[in-house]
Amino acid sequence: MTQNRRLAIRALAALGLAAAAYTGLELGIRLAADAAGVWGVLAASVLFPATIAGAPLLALAWGQWDPAVVVYGGSIAGGILYSRYRNGTSARDTSSTF
């Protein structure tokens, strides 16, 4: 696999991770704004890692499964692609010995 293709796959993975994080944060801020107004937005912005992780679960509890699929699915797919092609080597090219 050429170096340019590996870099393109890593860029695609990083883009997927960024899109999943943005979607989770945007969803969390909207939910916080509906629940607590300006103070909820401030709290969701300060606690953004918890907002990204928890907002899709709350939406899932309310019967909206689309945000959970986008955030968690995008994170898993992006994480697998990024870890598989990190350091310019694919998993197929790596050695099984330490």
DSSP E strands, number: 0
Helix content: over 70%
How many distinct domains? Answer: 1
**CA gyration radius, whole angstroms:** 17 Å
The overall pLDDT average reads 85
Strand percentage, roughly? under 5%
Order of helix and strand elements from N to C terminus:
HHH
Cα shape: elongated
Q: What is the terminal-to-terminal distance? A: 23 Å
Keywords:
single chain, 98 residues, mainly alpha, 79% helix, elongated
Task: Give a description of the structure.
By secondary structure, the chain is an all-alpha fold. It has one domain (3-87). The protein has helices at residues 3-46, 48-61, 66-84. The longest helix has 44 residues, at 3-46. The model has no long low-confidence stretch (mean pLDDT 85).
Question: What's this entry about, in short?
Answer:
Helices cover 79% and strands 0% of the residues. It contains 3 helices and no strands. Helix 1 crosses helix 2 (48-61), helix 1 (3-46) crosses helix 3 and helix 2 (48-61) crosses helix 3.
Question: SSE layout and pairings?
Answer:
Blueprint: H1 3-46, H2 48-61, H3 66-84
Helix pairs in contact: 1-2, 1-3, 2-3
